[in-house]
């Protein structure tokens, strides 16, 4: 991973934008949509800077000046000069999905975004807002953090009561909380892999990796597979596996 994707709050903050024409106008619309205040004053107290100048030498000089001030700079259509790039965005506020290629191909990022737009329900953002509103009820039903995470994971699973790829009505979260038994998947699960290629994981295997609290993996298992797990999952070598110590959802991964 050569870039770290982050979401930056720009509402009410200045962003320097140098340039005019179609490229600059597109950037202006994007940043103003995020609530930024756009200025062409290079000396402004800004959060970020965008250089959308047509002429190469002028663009390079502007990038150098802005970087000398310590600003992070996006140079439009000049990926080698960029401190950051702007992704293609799927907006289901407050859910945002950003697709980036590190400046390699804006067209590819756009194509992926268009495909995701077709897959994701229009009311996905309402589901996110509803879960936020229901936090106290959810915490009351599952006081333990691990139990709470497993219940939410189960509800959001494919086919679950809150499957994010289904267009739910406003009552979906209330209906789920009225029947909390739809949560909590625990126990020991074993996964046998035929390949080190993460793209060859089955849907079930990918789901287990994303849900597991504890992972015991054979030393031959590729890191490309293990990075598909939750970032907070505990990982151990399979040689240390003790069936008597199973807690939560424990996943054992072996080579077939």
Kindly describe this structure.
The chain has 9 helices and 10 strands. It has about 260 residues and is of the alpha/beta class. A 4-stranded parallel β-sheet has the order 2-1-3-4, sandwiched between helices. A 4-stranded parallel β-sheet has the order 7-10-8-9, with helices on one face. Strand 3 (about 50), helix 2 and strand 4 form a beta-alpha-beta unit. The longest helix is centred in the middle third of the chain and has 14 residues, at about 105-120. The model has no long low-confidence stretch (mean pLDDT about 90).
Largest sheet: 4 strands, parallel
SS-based class: alpha/beta
Helix content: 25-40%
Count of DSSP-assigned helices: 9
Instruction: Note the run of SSEs as H and E.
Output: EHEEHEEEHHHHHEHEHEE
Shape: globular
The fraction of residues in strands falls at: 15-25%
- For the terminal residues, how far apart are their CA atoms? 28 Å
